[in-house]
Amino acid sequence: METLWMIEPWHWLVLGFVLLIVEMFVPTFASLWFGAAAIIVAALTWLLPIGFSVQIVIWLVLSAVFLVVWFKFIKPLSVDRTKAGLGGSVIVGETGMIVLQPQPDRAGVVRFSVPIVGAAEWMCRTRGEVVAVGDRVVVTDIVGNELIVSSMKSQAVLNKNRQIQ
């Protein structure tokens, strides 16, 4: 009895590379995993005499495993931490470092290690507190386009006083 479907290893290899190329134009990472699974099936089919139905099952299982691993473990590591597009209130509580000291007559500049709402540096002022270049500060409020910051040291004292009361 002849088999109607005769799939050679190079068929799987071509399918795998076509899916990898499709991934370049469709940025979902879905076809990437189907393509990688097809390339692995090509290698297994080349090494071992595997029937067509077993090849399909291996391809489906590998694709499912790759997708689960991607969405469960790998993708959460690449979450956008910039908070771009969110309201200004997401900045309150963030910590940064003073790179230009604020003066009573002009704003200073605070730099964040990760861009916050699309920018790594923001204009800042204090509420009468003196902070120097290199001081770590925490954002306490936003007024217009400027951040109101407070020294991490003064925030630690406030938190300690709250715990005592």
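Second entry:
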Amino acid sequence: MRNIIVKAEQNYQVKVGIEFNLEIAEIIKNHNKVLLIAPASILKNFKVKEGRNLSIFATPEGENQKTLSTLDRVWTKCAALGIKRGDAIIGLGGGATTDLAGFAAATWLRGITWYAIPTSLAGMVDAAVGGKTGINAKSGKNLIGSFYSPTEVLIDPKFLRKLSSRDLSAGMAEIIKCGFISDYKILNLVQDEFLDYEELIYRSIRVKAYVVSKDFKESKLREILNYGHTLGHAIEKDSSYKLRHGEAVSIGMVFAAELSRDLAKLSDDAVLLHREILKNFNLPITYPKNRWSRLLQMLSTDKKVKQSKLRFIGISKIGKPVWFEDVSPTHLAKVYERINS
């Protein structure tokens, strides 16, 4: 087991290489009441059952759980159980589950202890680390939320054995992102014939932990973690979430690389490397030509827009992020032409 410390409003550990059943048992020992929030499929696949002071709330699958109605049902469950400030919530599932569980913990009694046990690769390297919690609004993804760190993030790599190849690839997009913005060694490791997932998870979390520890509330530096996400979030929503988050981010990274070639002189080889690595994991790198006008509308609602100026994260070379503070829609349209299908 290897530990990574994240410095936030409270310091916490990310433990990589644990046994999740043993960790849940330890959490139960430390609290009078524990509410475990997880999708029904996770509860079934890993035979998680209620115990003397462990109660379970089964959520819908995927993004369908990140709704105000589901959150209200979690609050109702907390009230029925008599969950107090000394008690705890566990989020066991993918990124949508840890987002929901963290926000429920942040808002119940103005904040109770919570633990994240991510079961998807994307959840392990991205959603569960960094303290961002929240649910989706009709107007966009993750527009309702808070910064509220868990007490621990617990990573059990054996969850990956149950993931489909598509879900593994979607998670790899977030790992590849960390390689391009910070740790070039990741880009070497993802090209190995046999992937060392635990090492890739560890290195990716280390990248995120460093950034979050320097800039917990995203005043500026933390924005580099959104490489590929600005267009990616718009694509994800435009697809009605039929595309996995990582799949949409994959397209967004190719777009960001092409934009970086224009505005930051990113080399042709680095742009090509984006396409090659992402294609190796069967990730999409194009999006339909006729969706641009709709995507542009959605870009205007992105959280990084300031004073109506469209902003993007790019790189000038591998490991060197740059900020594009005011990109014209005309220029963006020209770049989109290079990635459309």
